[in-house]
Amino acid sequence: MATSRAPTVRMRRLGAELRRLREERGLTGDGVAETLGWSPSKVSRVENARIGTRVSDVHRLLELYKVDVSHVGEVLALAEEAGRRGWWAQYSDIPADYAAFVALEDEADSALQCESQVMPGLLQTEDYARHVIQGWNAIATITPQAIARRVEVRMRRQELLTRPGPLNLSVVLDESVLLRRVGDRATMRGQLSRLLDTALLPNVDVRILPFDALHQPIVGESFILLEFSPAYDVTFPDVVHTESLTATQSQHESVTHSYRLAWESLSRQTLDDEESLERIAQIARERWHG
């Protein structure tokens, strides 16, 4: 069933920290639940961010775990933040895996992306995005209303790049994406113009992986690696998100480290900033104008 009730990073941070504190005291989830008079599954659901948690419940857990007073305030502040719903919650019809990604992306500090098929969603124009999303009708029926709402979600995601404390986005973009027609020529002209404008933002770096570069293929899929700074003295692991016909996410350190190495290797094979902008402008002029 489609739903956008995906846990925020704040909820996940809180759950992970409560698990760490419990394990630090050598307590079991069942034991904690029995002491507090909770159902046996409640502790697990809280720690895995499957349900929201009242601040009063968090306070009871911290008392039971005998948490140092210097850290209690940090965890309670995180619990207050975790109770806020993300903006994407109002889009109840978007797929659960997409909602989960949006929730993660919304609280990331930086993103390393490699794209070989289409423009990254954060850099798409509304027209380009509409054509991309309509393309999913080849394998699943999406109503015009649903398409409009998904385009709206994609446009709202882009506010990450211009809000106070914006997301730092670094993209390795295969040159084929600039040449692959999505929509008509006007769509592509508008898209490449938007790409040039957005690439000038101080927090956005777009590097083109050219056809004529000598490079060794490393990954055959597009991916984005989201990185998070500590918040309220609680860390959160990096997350890699990949998409093909389905989307997958992983927080395993060995997996995210491998994707980081892959991104770094590919980025060393790209054109530099100035050359990348020149290549985008050249293709826009020679391929899509006229």
Automatic annotation (TrEMBL):
Molecular-function GO terms, alphabetical: DNA binding
Domain HTH cro/C1-type residues, every copy: 18-72
SMART domains linked: HTH_XRE (SM00530)
InterPro entries on file: Cro/C1-type_HTH (IPR001387), DUF5753 (IPR043917), Lambda_DNA-bd_dom_sf (IPR010982)
Entry protein name: Helix-turn-helix protein
Organism this protein belongs to: Thermomonospora umbrina
